[in-house]
């Protein structure tokens, strides 16, 4: 999935209906969409976001902190 894809602006978490953050490949994980409010990661398989509640993975606190740092660093790099 392309981070510039306009679809990313309208996708929402199936649990709290809030916005999701795109996570590109990295740190041993495939592309995913992330809900920092619920600490849930939803995989993107073959370019298709898997947004069923059962598809989401609850992240432990330490991994959540790593993901937040990754998001923060990505926003510093992109003007």
User: Into which percentage range does the β-strand content fall?
Assistant: 15-25%
State the distance separating the first and last CA atoms. Answer: 20 Å
Question: What is the structural class?
Answer: alpha+beta
Which value, in Å, is the CA radius of gyration? 12 Å
**DSSP summary, beta strand count:** 5
The total count of helices amounts to: 1
Average pLDDT level: 88
**Share of helical residues:** 10-25%
Largest sheet data? 5 strands, antiparallel
What's the shape?
A: globular
Order of helices and strands: EEEEEH
Uncertain ranges: none
What would you note in describing this structure?
It is a single chain. Strands 1, 2, 3, 4 and 5 form a five-stranded antiparallel sheet that branches. The chain has one helix at 61-77; strands at 21-23, 32-35, 40-45, 48-49, 57-58. Helix content is 22%, strand content 22%. A hairpin with a 4-residue loop joins strand 2 (32-35) and strand 3 (40-45). It has 79 residues and is α+β, with helices and mostly antiparallel strands.
Offer a quick outline of the entry.
With 79 residues, this protein is of the alpha+beta class. It is built from 1 helix and 5 strands. 22% of the residues lie in helices and 22% in strands.
Question: How would you summarize the topology of this molecule?
Answer:
Elements: E1 21-23, E2 32-35, E3 40-45, E4 48-49, E5 57-58, H1 61-77
Antiparallel strand pairs: 1-2, 2-3, 3-4, 3-5
């Amino acid at each position: 999935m392309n981070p510039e894809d306009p679809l990313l602006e309208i996708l929402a978490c199936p649990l709290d209906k809030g916005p999701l953050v795109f996570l590109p490949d990295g740190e041993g994980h495939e592309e995913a969409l992330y809900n920092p409010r619920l600490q849930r990661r939803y995989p993107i398989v073959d370019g298709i976001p898997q947004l069923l509640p059962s598809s989401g993975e609850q992240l432990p606190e330490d991994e959540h902190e790593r993901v937040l740092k990754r998001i923060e660093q990505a926003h510093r790099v992109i003007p």
